[in-house]
Specification:
The protein is built from twelve helices and 28 strands. It is α+β, with helices and mostly antiparallel strands. The radius of gyration is 27 Å and the shape is elongated. The relative contact order is 0.11.
Length: 586
């Protein structure tokens, strides 16, 4: 008979780790007497990172005493105490290889259901002073698992644990864990797992992504269950040469390039909203790698990118001052998941500054098809001198029978005409949106600076727009997602202290750094951290299902797979960030 050996609780605390402050609830301690098991947790317990831990489907973490003995041998440690692994219930029995997702257990006065394996986290390594523990828990098949509380009630150390129902499909915690994290994802096993009603939403999302990947690409590379949606695969690996067939000044600080394939062969038409990576510069200087959204009508004959001249931007200065019509640049295939959804629902296109480019491509696509959808064009910029595509957007909107336009100038010039060149003085913000009768059932596409996007996204949420109707694309390096780590001032990206004399060139396309790979770095993550490059997902050990969407970062043993497989002379564009940040020139 299985038995509850200890009930462990603890509230989040701030701990020092590698020069950072981590807010974590990994420290749990045994409690005496009866405790109430409630829908979200045990009385007296709490989680430091509610996006990755806790919630209805992860209310109670369970770990086995047998695994304690196993890790004592493996790690040569003998000082373990109950709660050592951050678990709420330390149990005798209930092995991961025997307990199945969907099993139900009566413990004391409460009824529990198994929902998912433990999602191993770097904070378990902090608690144990074993940085690679999270990866080891998966590798050795001993993750532990979560309970959902079906019936609230009191529990106490010493209570018997009785299984009252078996989960459908009889898939054990260890099987489910390996199906996501280990190599090989058999289709029949994915289908079985998705038939289990008790499986938590995060894991369900990951298995659905793997199944979709298998249907689309067969023996696919990467693990769709451990990555955000990244759009369809690119049409070709590496780079192709393109000739600059046109160079157009769109405003005082924006220039467009029209690029046609140098070999005369057609390109795959991009989806409206996608981007390309350009390799720029002369043969005598290190290449500059930059990602730019496509701004023109998607077609198979050419690409158009539009670049804002930045005060200290090497690539934008090269484009503005040196690149000429007839010159050759090298471009990747179009990629990205920030794309216009098909359908007949209203479309609201919101942009600020150079963030106009991907939504302009969407407007081109809507106009080309003569869309009958309701289309709202909302744009904010400084003034008429810095307002690119003003006439082009007006002409496109006039072809759409159900269009609306609202332009904000934050600092209009005296010659800028109200109600002609712009509609309102000030920023395009939530207050401006509240004055508009935009459709609440539409899809909202938002692109611009990070502060603009976060404010608009949050504001739309407050105004009642569901998250699945809000789509965003960030220009520039995004903030790092480092669960539980307190924010701290960051240095500007820079070259590492020690430069390698040889090795592949690594270009961080969003921050403009070109660094040679050296043997002192074990992973791209280490190189990025040495350069203070913001890393979107930087969990070194363990994986996190964020907000139960299945979004997962890389582990010690798992690096986000490049879009293109390695081949001599090719370039790998790693999509750990949805827009891609790292290019490795092999």
């Amino acid at each position: 008979m299985a038995r509850l050996l200890s009930v462990n609780v603890g509230l989040p605390q701030d701990v020092a780790w590698q020069g950072k402050t981590v807010h974590t609830g990994i420290w749990k301690a045994p409690v005496k007497g009866r405790r109430m098991a409630r829908r979200l947790n045990i009385d007296g317990d709490g989680q430091g990172d509610l996006a990755g831990h806790g919630g209805e489907h992860r209310a109670v973490l369970v770990y086995q005493h047998d695994s304690y003995r196993y890790w004592q041998d493996q790690l040569s440690q003998s000082d373990f105490v109950y709660g050592q692994f951050g678990e709420n219930f330390t149990v005798d029995g209930l092995a991961d290889a025997e307990v199945c997702i969907g099993d139900r257990y009566r413990i004391g006065g409460a009824l529990f259901e198994v929902t998912q394996p433990r999602v191993t986290c770097y904070r378990a390594g902090i608690r144990m002073n074993q940085p690679d523990l999270a990866a080891l828990l998966v590798k050795h098949g001993r993750p532990g698992f979560y309970f959902r509380v079906l019936e609230e009630g009191e529990v106490e150390a010493g209570d018997e644990i009785t299984r009252v129902a078996s989960g459908p499909e009889n898939m054990s915690v260890r099987e489910i864990d390996a199906l996501l994290y280990m190599p090989g994802h058999p289709r029949d096993q994915l289908v079985r797992a998705l038939r289990i009603p008790a499986l938590s939403p995060g894991w369900r999302h990951s298995f659905e992504a793997l199944l979709t990947q298998e249907r689309k690409r067969g023996a696919a590379t990467g693990n769709a269950g451990l990555a955000p949606e990244s759009g369809p695969p690119p049409a070709w690996p590496g780079f192709r040469p393109f000739r600059v067939s046109g160079k157009v000044r769109e405003s005082s600080n924006v220039t467009s390039l029209v690029l046609e394939p140098a070999d005369g062969q057609p390109v795959a038409a991009a989806l409206p909203g996608q981007f390309v990576v350009l390799r720029l510069g002369s043969v005598s200087t290190p290449a500059l790698m930059r990602s730019y959204s496509l701004s023109g009508q998607p077609n198979a004959a050419s690409y158009r990118v539009s670049v804002k001249r930045e005060p200290h931007g090497a690539a934008s200065a090269y484009i503005d001052q040196q690149l000429q019509t007839g010159d050759i640049v090298h471009a990747s295939a179009a990629r990205g998941s920030f794309t216009l959804r098909p359908g007949d629902t209203p479309v609201v296109l919101l942009s600020a500054g150079i963030g106009v480019t991907p939504v302009l491509a969407m407007l081109h696509a809507l106009a080309a098809e003569g869309s009958m959808r309701e289309v709202w064009w909302l744009h904010g910029t400084r003034n008429g001198r810095e307002h690119p595509f003003a006439g082009e957007a007006r002409q496109l909107l006039e072809t759409l029978p159900h269009h609306h336009s609202y332009i904000c100038y934050s600092s209009p010039d005296p010659e800028d005409r109200p109600d002609a060149d712009f509609d309102a003085a000030g920023h395009l913000d939530v207050q401006a949106l509240q004055r508009l009768a935009y459709p609440r059932n539409g899809d909202f596409y938002i692109c611009g600076p990070s502060a603009f996007m976060s404010d608009i996204t949050a504001g739309l949420g407050v105004l009642g727009i569901p998250p699945d109707q809000i789509h965003t694309e960030l220009f520039g390096a995004g903030p790092s997602i480092t669960p539980g780590i307190a924010a701290s001032p960051r240095r500007a990206p820079h070259l590492p202290a020690e430069l390698a004399a040889s090795g592949p060139m690594v270009s961080f396309v969003r921050t403009g750094l070109n660094v040679r790979w050296g043997s002192s770095f074990k992973t791209l993550l280490e190189l990025a951290e040495a350069c203070d490059v913001p890393v979107r997902w930087s969990c070194r050990a363990g994986v996190c299902h964020t907000c139960e969407t299945g979004l997962v970062a890389g582990t010690v043993d798992y690096q986000p797979d490049p879009v293109d497989a390695p081949a001599p002379g090719n370039v790998l564009i790693c999509c750990a960030h949805p827009k891609g940040d790292v290019v490795v020139d092999l």
